[in-house]
Design goal:
The protein has 434 residues and is an alpha/beta fold. The chain has three domains: 5-26 and 239-367, 3-Layer(aba) Sandwich (Rossmann fold), CATH 3.40.50.1980; 30-233, Rossmann fold (3-Layer(aba) Sandwich), CATH 3.40.50; 399-428, no CATH class. The chain has 17 helices and 15 strands. The chain has a six-stranded parallel β-sheet with strand order 1-12-11-10-13-14, with helices on both faces. A six-stranded mixed β-sheet has the order 2-7-6-5-8-9, with helices on both faces. Helix 5 (85-103) packs across helix 7, helix 6 runs parallel beside helix 7 (173-181) and helix 8 packs parallel to helix 9.
């Protein structure tokens, strides 16, 4: 049996119960912090030497030189060639869909000219070099390659470097094939905090990048937080989340499995159902109990649902949408009639899945939008990974002689008001005759 929390928005203690349910203690482990800081310091000081030592220590991969940790391009192409036709076809179709979607996000430079000849605008440029972290070993995710590499390539990033741990030399052909399809420029068989450090600081062999993206374990996440500022990072992601709003007319087995799809990620993942139909909630609970035993990752799902999952009875769909905005989930399914009506009420969510046939899993792999999404309520102020994360904006200002007099006078007044005389005089020199 499985025991999953039942809540009702009508209960007097509901607000407190919901807050406790959503609370996620992302406390920093002092030992982990110290270990990561030590690894990063050694990578920064010793470069390839430390990288080789940590790779041997953590991945039991004995390389004679750091150059041996780089996979030749022919190895990536070989992995693609060796894929069964059905896998290659799925990978290629997913790649094309993700690419087409992200091409819509491309932002172009723009400018306008004022009547006096002053020109103002914005120049858009891609990053020179980006680093992509892809989990390896047992946790191998080719979809992570697609979702991180494709927007970088669409943005025009000059060089994309992928790092992926290969414990005892164990590689995953699907991951390498994805790298080949996405035209990743260089791939290194390194992982952990040491890989993040190599990308952030650079070594003789691994080039320093401008931004690091991609998921990883606690060491990787902590390392990314440590190097932020030296390089950019995509986000500090927490456990996976799904919130389902259902009017009670969807097959309860579908909803139960949608909740499983996130709960199976890890024990800290969160799956919540909101519905105004009590009978439907009971049907979903029964489906969860019935289907759980057949799931290969049933113990992970059980722990996730019992500790952080919930079935919540709400007054109506309007209240469900209000609660969704409070929860600000990573994934939100609107499994309702006329989902296009209800999506207008949603302000905060990483990705929104409309209609009964739109499972969250499609977004993870092949729908097109990015699956790298804000978690832990950060959808209130942040967005999915996209092409814009690999582009920079530079302001363009070209002031005409006539405009210099007009703008200079304004700047002079404001600069004197701030007590910054050099600022004022710098502006005044352009229009004051001496």
């Amino acid at each position: 049996m499985i025991s999953i929390k039942r809540l009702s928005s009508a209960d007097t203690e509901f607000d407190r119960a919901l807050s406790e349910l959503l609370a996620f203690e992302n406390a920093q482990d002092a030992k982990l912090e110290a270990a990561v800081a030590d690894i990063l310091a050694k990578i920064r000081m010793q470069g390839d030497k430390a990288l080789l030592e940590y790779t041997l220590r953590f991945d039991r991969l004995d390389a004679k030189s750091a150059a041996d940790l780089e996979l030749p391009r022919k190895r990536l192409q070989q992995a693609l060639h060796n894929l069964p036709a059905v896998q290659r076809n799925a990978l290629e179709q997913a790649t094309e869909r993700v690419r087409v979607y992200h091409e819509k996000q491309l932002t172009q430079s723009w400018s306008y000219v004022e009547p006096d000849g002053t020109q103002l605008g914005q120049k858009i440029t891609p990053l020179d070099r980006a680093g992509l972290y892809v989990p390896g070993g047992k946790a191998s995710y080719p979809s992570s390659v697609l979702m991180n590499a494709i927007p970088a390539k669409v943005a025009g990033v000059g060089e994309l470097i992928m790092v992926t741990p290969t414990p005892q030399g164990e590689t995953n052909d699907l991951v390498l094939a994805a790298a080949a399809i996405c035209e990743v420029d260089r791939v290194f068989t390194i992982g952990g905090a040491q890989a993040v450090g190599a990308l952030a600081y650079g070594t003789r062999t691994v080039s320093r990048v401008d931004k690091i993206v991609g998921p990883g374990n606690a060491y990787v996440a902590t390392a990314k937080r440590h190097v932020f500022g030296v390089v950019g990072i995509d986000m500090l992601a927490g456990p996976s989340e799904i919130l389902v709003i259902c009017d009670g007319k969807t097959n309860p087995d579908w909803i139960a499995m949608d909740m499983f799809s996130q709960a199976e990620h890890d024990e800290l993942a969160q799956a919540i159902l909101l519905s105004p139909d009590l009978h439907f909630i009971e049907a979903v609970a029964a489906s969860i109990a019935r289907q759980l035993e057949a799931m290969p990752r049933k113990e992970i799902i059980r722990t996730s649902l019992e500790n952080r999952g919930a079935l919540i009875h709400v007054r109506d769909l309007d209240e469900a949408c209000e609660l969704a905005n409070r929860i600000a989930p990573e994934h939100l399914e609107l499994s309702v009639e006329q989902p296009e009506k209800w999506v207008e009420k949603i302000r905060h969510a990483g990705a929104i899945f409309l209609g009964r046939h739109t499972s969250e899993a499609l977004g993870d792999y092949c729908a097109g939008p990015n699956h790298v999404l804000p978690t832990s309520r950060t959808a209130r102020f942040s967005s999915p990974l996209g092409v814009y994360d690999f582009q920079k904006r530079s302001s363009i200002i070209q002031v005409s002689e006539q405009g210099s007099a007009k703008l200079g006078a304004i700047a002079s007044v404001l600069a004197h008001g701030e007590g910054l005389q050099a600022h004022a005089m710098s502006a005044e020199y352009r229009y004051t005759k001496k």
